[in-house]
Amino acid sequence: MKERVWNFREIGRLPAPGDNVAMATRRVEAGTRVSREGSEFAVGHTVLEGHRFAVEPIAEGEDLLSWGLRFGRAVKDIAPGDYACNEKILRVLRERFKASPRREEDPEGTSDQGGGRVPGGQDETGLSLPEEPNFSDAELEPYVLDEEGFRPGEQVPFHDEPRTFMGYSRGAGRGVGTRNYIVVIGLTSRLTGFVRALELEMNGVVDAYENVDGIVCVAHTEGGEDRKPNNLDLLLRTLSGFMVNPNVGAVLVLDHGGEEAVTNGMLRAHLEEHGYPIDDLPHEFMSLEGSFRQDLERAKSVVQGWLEEVDAARRTEEPASELKISLQCGGSDAFSGVSANPLVAWVSGEIVRNGGIANLAETDELIGAEHYVLKNVKDLETARRFLSTVERFKERVSWHGHTAEDNPSGGNNYRGLYNISIKSIGAAMKKHPDVRIDHVIEYAQRMAEPGFYFMDSPGNDLESVAGQVASGANMIFFTTGNGSITNFPFVPTIKFVTTTGRYELLSKDMDVNAGAYLDGTPMDELGRETFERTLRAASGERTVGERAGHAQVSIWRDWKQTGDENLDLLENEQEPDGEPLPVKGGAPDVEFYFEAIRSGRGPVLDQVGLVMPTSLCSGQISRRIANRLNERGATLGKVTRFVALPHTEGCGVSAGSAETIYSRTMLGHLASPSVRFGLLLEHGCEKTHNDYFRNRLEEAGLDPNRFGWASVQLDGGIDSVVAKVEKWFTQTLDSAEALEYEGAGPEALRLALYASGPISDEAAESLAEATLAVVGSGG
What we know:
Elements: E1 5-7, H1 8-11, E2 12-13, E3 21-24, E4 33-36, E5 39-42, E6 52-54, E7 63-66, E8 69-74, H2 87-99, E9 135-137, E10 164-169, E11 176-177, E12 181-186, H3 192-201, E13 214-218, H4 232-244, E14 248-255, H5 264-273, E15 283-287, H6 292-311, E16 316-319, E17 324-329, H7 336-353, E18 357-360, H8 370-373, H9 380-398, H10 410-414, H11 420-427, E19 437-441, E20 451-455, H12 461-470, E21 475-480, E22 493-497, H13 500-505, E23 512-513, H14 515-518, H15 523-538, H16 544-548, H17 567-571, E24 594-597, E25 608-613, H18 619-631, E26 641-644, H19 657-670, E27 675-682, H20 690-699, E28 708-711, H21 718-734, E29 741-744, H22 761-776
Parallel strand pairs: 1-4, 12-13, 12-14, 14-15, 17-18, 17-21, 18-20, 19-20, 21-22, 22-23, 25-26, 25-27, 27-28
Antiparallel strand pairs: 2-3, 3-6, 4-5, 7-8, 8-9, 10-11, 10-16, 24-29
Helix pairs in contact: 2-20, 3-6, 4-5, 4-12, 7-11, 7-15, 18-21
């Protein structure tokens, strides 16, 4: 039988004419023969969907090109059909395929990494990889602006008759809202538990008010330490911007009162000093001063008092010039720059033509794409400001021992984004080449004039979105290759997924299938459809994310270093040896016994079923699953309760010590004697995904097969993964023995000592005596 020869268009795509490497639009097996422009070549190794292979001969020392821009340099001669791979991508694939078992529901290993279902997609035995890389990453040299040759760009022309949508007019100072929310802001991270409890207790209250979209909280990670944070000005600017965002109908801001590093008084002063238009906005600043319940009732009373006033707002016909669009990407893949980002660019260009605003951000994800970004800029000063923003970002990162090369996540690598250069080239495609950059602004700086903006921000999409919302964005365009499910509490998100295969896998969690462009739908047709969808969403039509009912907020994190001083000392600081301190003197005799649960690791107080998210983005789904299991009474006498540990890490976590500490903490929770059964739930595109933790568990001598594993993205979205996790716990508990109890003494205790603020000498002595008694007894 004659061997099949594939037409190049069936398996590959060139992002731009003149590129010498192509993207695989499906998994291509080693030995596959390909016909292109009258010539024929064989593919040398497995090329996963989204990864690249050469279509032209590339000599050692020559550049590898995508979108006409270089992202690597050949370290050996590369022939047509050779898999283009650097050292990092080979390491990532070997780690992931080493750790990826066949799924129960997929025994043949046919689930690929998102583009549908193809033989051998997850089967490591079918993966053929080169022994060594054939290119090294392009050097990230500072872009040199040719000021003498600079020519001011031209903006796309405005439409004579702009389109309209139905929005909430807030007056000249705040613009027009696409939603009408009552927002509760926790001033610092210390208010997280309180504002979430308030949101939970107010759930369903707005059902009787037709024009109130909801009561939502803003809980974040910043400002909770005792010292003044280095990002104080940025934090105050962000929270001020949240308050006056046009989607806010009323806002309550809470602090703890007292002598904290960040207070309501500081926020009030910032609002006044910088002229934020807050006078016509129903708002209140409240300090917690009673019991938790007393303060909760006071806060509920304030919020309830606004319901009638906020409900009195009505949507009116408003020009599309009042739309301010946040442009974001998260969980990107190789197709982001070919389908989803160009589609967003098309629609945001239409917003600009209607006199509106589009806001591009994520500074480190444009490093390496400066040439493209600066092809069309308003004036020389704007170009200079953009480049100085990039260099400032590089400097700040260097203070902490990192570079922009650390940006791409494990999910990015797995889906074909080899390095920051190729990721940046694709990310830059959210700006259409015909659209001019008019303004460069600081993080969370308010946008006043129409046009296209670039806002300084980190590459973490949640932190970047927060800045854009604070700048005034009333809609979010979010592109994703892996299928990110994140949302913002009071600004609707339209999600664009890059491929039809991934859209079909996650259709209940995505809004727009940008993969239709790859399948043959013209970009103009898809753009017009999406623009109409945008107007409908701005007028109140719920997005998929809004219907899902979950959201996350993360503000640009505080940076600990303000220069490169002591960096060598910090990087080489010796870690603690982990050995306990010896007990000096005799320990007091303690007659103390309690009922404990018998476990294989000694008596314990708890035996929980743990749902452990591997990143911030899967945290709320983990909490939802644990709550559902508890409500169903699914413990069956086999665990005491189900617990989720939502946290703020994993998505944009840096390499080095930050990643090490995070990983060690996660493993410590999973290995806790109080955890009887644990399951790890990944979002799917984070840096520290399930395969990452499989390997860390093995390195720590822990059996990964003790735990369950699930993925929001790879298991088909929220509903599917919830069902899968519940099934795993049900089956695991069915085969487990019932809990048994026994008596135990102080030797079974493992105490964590924590004090917030100063304590009296008497209290300190009491704690010391209790500690000595427990440790002296063997606890």
